[in-house]
Amino acid sequence: MKNIDDLDNIDKILYQCMPGLEEKLLDAMPQDEEITYHFSDKFERKMKKLCKQVKLKEQYGFPIATMKKSAAAIILILGVTIAMSLSVKAVREKLFDYFVKIYETYTERMY
Amino acid sequence: MLEMLMLYMSLIETEEEKVKFEKIYVQYRKLMYVCAKEILRSDHLAEDAVHEAFLKIAKYLDKIEFPCNKTKRFVVIVVENAAKDIYRKEKHRMHLDLEAIETSYHFPVIDGVEEMTDVEKAILKLPLTYRQIFQMKYAWGFPNKEIAQILNMKEGTLRQRIMRGKGILREILKEMEVYIDEEYR
Hints:
The complex is a heterodimer. Chain A is an all-alpha fold. Helices cover 75% and strands 0% of the residues of chain A. Chain A has four helices and no strands. The radius of gyration of chain A is 34 Å and the shape is elongated. By secondary structure, chain B is an all-alpha fold. Helix content of chain B is 67%, strand content 0%. Chain B contains nine helices and no strands. In chain B, α2 crosses α4. The longest helix of chain B has 22 residues, at 69-90. Chain B is globular. The N and C termini of chain B lie far apart (68 Å). At the A-B interface, α1 and α2 of A face α2, α3, α4, α6 and α7 of B.
């Protein structure tokens, strides 16, 4: 007879019993066709959206929502950087000078 | 032209091409709903639990084999935990005792369904938290790290629960006067 006071023996018992018990439990679970329940429209909509996101992630390696967020973040950072740069008078004048120079150098007037 | 054709071909979705996530959703959503309903006793909250569970399943999709009995157990455990989490959030509005649910909840109900050994009956008397851990660890061989991730707990906490669960099982076996003979080596 086994000494169940020793937890190592409980461990061995669990390794021996659990697979068989698990099989019985899984066999006893109802099959999908036995369950008659209609999910709400709200749930179906949420799941459809989730399925679409996961599908895109599986196909392209990243979720489309992440891609949109990344693009928005990049645009925002660029916009803020440009606005901040142009708010400095020296930078603004240098930039205008550059455009004037380009215009004068490469514009040819023909009469 | 060839690129366009390939793009259109990739958009055609046959039954075989349906992605794993969708297959899991179609096959197990009703089963998951029944599990969640057993805990939450509300259609609306059970649907929320199923949705939460699928958000979690999406994270582990690369580790899931399909079709497979392990997946069936995995989705059931995930939805049971999602239902428990929702219960904790909503408990001020509900009149159910989580501790009572932990010990009395059995899915599937297997009374008299199969011939069960005394040890198996003892294991089923364990609270849900310990049963789930033992199912993943001893029946399916999930490593501790993965079990901890799935159940949202630290590995140290998991080890403690395994020890505590074994202790509780020992007490149940003693209480039931189950003697372990030579067949359990």
